Amino acid sequence: MLDKISALIDNQLYKSESRSEIETQINSDPQLRFEYEIQLTVKNTIKSKCHRTMCPAALRAKILEGIQSQREVREPVRQDKPSFFSFMRRPVFAFPSAIAAVLVVYILVSSALTGNPDLPAFDAMAQNNFKSILEGNLKPQMLSSSPAVLADFFREKGVDYEVHLPDNGKWDLVGGVVSKDGGRNLAHFVMKSKTGGLIYVFEISKKYLTDDKVLRLDSGKLAVLNTGNCYTKFVDDYCLMVTKTNDNYIAIATNCDPTEIKSYFCSIK
Amino acid sequence: MTNSKALYADFEREAVPHMDALFNFALRMTGDSDEANDLVQDTYLRAFRFFDKFEKGTNCKAWLFRIMKNTYINTYRKRTKEPEKVDYEEVENFYENIKPSSTDDAHLDKEIFDNLLDDQVSNAISALPEDFRTVVILADIEGFTYDEIADFIDCPVGTVRSRLHRARKMLFAQLYEYAGSKGYKISTDEEE
Predict the structure, then answer these.
(1) What CATH number does the domain located at B88-181 have?
(2) Pick from A117, A132, A268, A246: which is nearest to A188 by CA?
(3) Where do the CATH 1.10.10.10 domains begin and end in chain B?
(4) pLDDT tens across B64-90, in order?
(5) CA max distance for chain A
(6) Residue of A nearest to B98 (CA)
(7) Which of A30, A46, A50 is closest, CB to CB, to B100?
C-alpha cells in the first residue's frame, strides 16, 4: 500500500489500481494519511526548492564544437578508409605473433618533413601512424608485453624522458617503436584491449613542443590542454585523444571504447 | 543535404535541448562541477557518435540519460568520493518517534519546510544513497515517468515505487533535522 501512495501522488498508478479506492484507504487510516502527507510534502519541497542548474555556456560551446569537429571528419574519412572490422580481419594484425620488426615510423615521420617547411603536427602524426598501423604498414621494432622491457628499449634507443607504460591489466602491451625527429628520439607504443581493439600511444617530452620546437600542436588544442582537459576527437571508427602530464604530451589513437583509456591517460600527472 | 548535415541537424533538434537536464543530473550524481562537465561532454560526444543508431520518434532524453548512466558507471562513479549517506534503519527509527497515534494527529506543519534553504534541500538529496538519489532526481526534478525510470535503472516499476517512497522518507527525516536546527519543530496534537 505504501508504494501506491507515491504512485498516487505522481499520477503513476497502474491501470488496474483505482485512485478513489486508494484515496479512501488513505483518508480512513491515520498512518497511511501520515505517509501520504510526508510524500506530498517532500515532493512539493523539492519542486519549489530544487532548481535545475543550467549547463554552463562555455561547456555547451565546447560540446558543440566537439560534435562539429566529429561531423566534419565523418564523411570524407569514411569514404576512403577501411573500417576497423575489415582491418581486424586482416591476418597481418595478429600482433602478438608478428615477428617483423621493421621501423617504418621513422621513414613516415621523416618523409613528412621532407620538402615541408612547417613542423609536423603532433596529433596529425599520431593519426597518420595509427592509420598506418591499421593498414599494415607499421610494425613494432620491439615486441614485448612487459612494461619494464619496453622502458629499457626506449632508454637504449635514446628516449631521454619517462614514458608512461600502463601496467594495470586492462590492456596488453604489444610493442614499441622509437622514431627520430629534429635529432630527438620519440617513443611510440601499441597495446591491445581484451576485446581485440588497438591502442596506439605517441608520447613526447613537453619541451619538444614548447622549447625545442621539434613538433607543433595548434593553439586551440593547446588551450584545451592548458585548461586541464583532454582534447578528444572522434574520427570515423577511431578516437584521437591528446593530453599532457607534468612533463610530457601524449597522443592516443584507438578503435576501442575510449572512456577507460581517456580516464587513465588524462589522469596521469 | 548530406547525410552528415542531416544527422547533425537531427541531433541539434533532438538531443541538444536536453543538455541542461543532463548537466543538472550529472552535477547531482557526481557532486563535482568538473566531473559533471566531463561527464556531459563524454555523453554528448558518444551520443553523436552513435546517433545514427537512435530510433527516431523514441524518447531522446531517456536515450541520452542511458548513455550518461553507462558512462558514469564505467568511469566517474569509480573516482567520485561519496559523501556520508543516510542510513535507512535510522530513518525508520525516526518515524517510530514522530508518527501520529490517531487520525487527528495525522497532519504536518508543512510551512516549516518552506523556510528551508534551497541548498539544504539539495544537500539532503546529495546525502541519499545513489540508488535512492537517482529515482528522486529523475522523478521529482526531471519529471520522468516510472516506466522511464525503470528503464533507466534496469529494475521493475515496483522497485521504482518502493525506492521513491523510501527515498522521500529519508529526505523527510533529513529535512526535519535541518528544520529543527533552525529552531522549527513539527508538532502533533499530542504535544499541543
Answers:
(1) 1.10.10.10
(2) A132
(3) 88-181
(4) 999 998 888 877 665 555 545 555 566
(5) 90
(6) A34
(7) A30
